[in-house]
């Protein structure tokens, strides 16, 4: 018995001695890859903060182009997020709770703006709502013009940002245990009451995180906006468009706007992490 045990222990030691160098090499490789990736991400972002002095940053914030772009972006992104939440929540709830003919097609069309190039989204909106567009030509009869206005900015943001909320909302609704909904129905609650009093509160954390992501996507929209709304200061020039414009003559203003967007993006990520961990 002792000899057999000795042989087994010797075999284990030989196996561990062979695998130890391999594990060490794998650990070093993973550490090197992580370090390279972190450097690749952090160095460009850190360069923005190192490229401009605090005095130049705050001085740029007082320039009209920066103030106009900042205020317009915050207002339009907020409006578009509200629109997405109001219209996207019922759609996400229906798709999560009901199996109807064509649901896969609806899901595919909902996700389409995620993979659609922003320039394609912009020209598609222009062909639909422009003055000679499929819908715009009828609006033009009543003197309603959407393209190259602030309304166009909101529509472009809604188009590209809606999937981020709807996908998250649908996943959150699907994660809600139907046992609670069934119990409410047996007590006589209507479908509307069940949705408002049971389903939505239980999925609240996912809905909030989806709305935050949608707001961030709307805030950073560039391609569809410039194609459909144009680039007019104080009217359609959002922060990404202002960065593109000021890069040609005022680098400090462009960097200042970029820093603001970086800070907002970091805050959005932190907010999503806090919301998803919090118990509602």
From TrEMBL:
Q: Which parts of the sequence belong to the ABC transmembrane type-1 domain?
A: 70-272
Q: Name one GO molecular function term.
A: ABC-type sulfate transporter activity
Alphabetized InterPro entries for the sequence: MetI-like, MetI-like_sf, ModB_ABC, NifC_ABC_porter, Sulph_transpt2
Record keywords: Membrane, Molybdenum, Sulfate transport, Transmembrane, Transmembrane helix, Transport
Q: Does the keyword Membrane apply?
A: yes
Give the residue spans that cross the bilayer.
24-50, 70-96, 108-130, 142-166, 194-216, 253-275
Q: How does it sit in the membrane?
A: Multi-pass membrane protein
The record's GO CC annotations read: plasma membrane
**Gene this chain is encoded by:** modB
Q: What is this protein called?
A: Molybdate transport system permease protein
Q: Where is the protein localized?
A: Cell membrane; Membrane
The UniProt entry's sequence similarity note says: Belongs to the binding-protein-dependent transport system permease family.
PANTHER family listed in its UniProt record: SULFATE TRANSPORT SYSTEM PERMEASE PROTEIN (PTHR30406), SULFATE TRANSPORT SYSTEM PERMEASE PROTEIN CYST (PTHR30406:SF8)
């Amino acid at each position: 018995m002792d000899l057999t045990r000795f042989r087994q222990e010797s075999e284990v030691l030989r196996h561990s001695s062979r695998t130890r160098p391999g594990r060490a090499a794998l650990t070093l490789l993973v550490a090197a890859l992580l370090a390279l990736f972190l450097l690749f991400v952090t160095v460009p972002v850190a360069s923005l903060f190192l490229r401009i002095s605090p005095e130049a940053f705050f001085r740029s914030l007082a320039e009209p182009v920066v103030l106009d772009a900042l205020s317009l972006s915050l207002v339009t992104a907020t409006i578009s997020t509200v629109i997405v939440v109001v219209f996207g929540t019922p759609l996400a709830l229906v798709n999560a709770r009901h199996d109807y003919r064509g649901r896969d097609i609806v899901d595919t069309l909902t996700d389409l703006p995620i993979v659609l190039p922003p320039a394609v989204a912009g020209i598609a909106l222009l062909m639909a709502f422009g003055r000679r567009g499929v819908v715009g030509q009828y609006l033009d009869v009543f003197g309603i013009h959407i393209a190259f206005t602030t309304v166009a900015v909101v529509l472009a943001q809604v188009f590209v940002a809606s999937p981020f909320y709807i996908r998250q909302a649908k996943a959150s609704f699907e994660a809600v245990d139907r046992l609670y909904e069934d119990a409410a129905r047996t007590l006589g609650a209507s479908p509307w009451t069940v949705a408002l009093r049971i389903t939505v509160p239980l999925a609240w954390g996912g809905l909030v995180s989806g709305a935050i992501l949608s707001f961030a996507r709307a805030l950073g929209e560039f391609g569809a906006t410039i194609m459909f709304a144009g680039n007019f200061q104080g009217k359609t020039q959002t922060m990404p468009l202002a960065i593109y414009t000021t890069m040609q003559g005022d680098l400090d203003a462009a960097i200042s706007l970029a820093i603001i967007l970086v800070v907002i993006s970091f805050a959005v990520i932190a907010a999503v992490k806090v919301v998803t961990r919090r118990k509602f």
